[in-house]
Amino acid sequence: MESEVPPGEAGTELSGLLTGLVEGVPHTRSAVLLSIDGLVTAAHGLESSGAEHLAALAAGLYGLARSAGARFGDPGEVRQVVVELDRSLLFVSSAGPGACLAVVAAREADPAVLGYAMATLVKTVRPALNTAPRQPAGQ
């Protein structure tokens, strides 16, 4: 699989960090940094269309979790969404204001190890991951 990254030094740096996460945690398959509205910032382990699809799914899950929190009395920040499938795990976590980190791993992955690695990556590079909200045209 290829790593699809927007051009530029920041994208290359973020791609390298994602590569370290995917290759450093056993059974991890791919990772995508995205804006909360589903735009890919950087990716590793997926081709462009796969990264875009995962970003759209992750943004939707993140939005649902925020809505559930607001509806049921916890309108704070979403920390993490975990989806357990038969053969895979999907983690979506906050990566700073306006940004998320989505990671796909095989079922054999240790969720605690992967969650810790994700939190460490986010903490280390939070300033680079912040995505300003998009403004309507003309503002």
CATH class: Alpha Beta
Instruction: List low-pLDDT spans.
Output: 1-7
Strand fraction: 15-25%
Series of H and E elements = HEEHEEEH
Number of helices: 3
The radius of gyration computed from the alpha-carbon positions, rounded to a whole number of angstroms, is 14 Å
Q: What is the fourth-level CATH superfamily?
A: Dynein light chain 2a, cytoplasmic
* Level-2 CATH architecture: 2-Layer Sandwich
- What does the main sheet amount to? 5 strands, antiparallel
Q: How confident overall, as mean pLDDT?
A: 87
What spatial form do the alpha-carbon principal axes imply? globular
> How many angstroms does the end-to-end distance come to?
39 Å
How many DSSP E strands? 5
Overall tally of structural domains: 1
**Could you name the CATH topology?**
Beta-Lactamase
Helix content: 40-55%
Going by helix content, strand content and strand pairing, the class is: alpha+beta
List the strand order in the largest sheet: 2-1-5-4-3
Pfam family, one: Robl_LC7
InterPro entries: Mycobact_SerProt_Inhib_Rv3364c, Roadblock/LAMTOR2_dom
Protein name: Roadblock/LC7 domain-containing protein
Domain Roadblock/LAMTOR2: 15-105
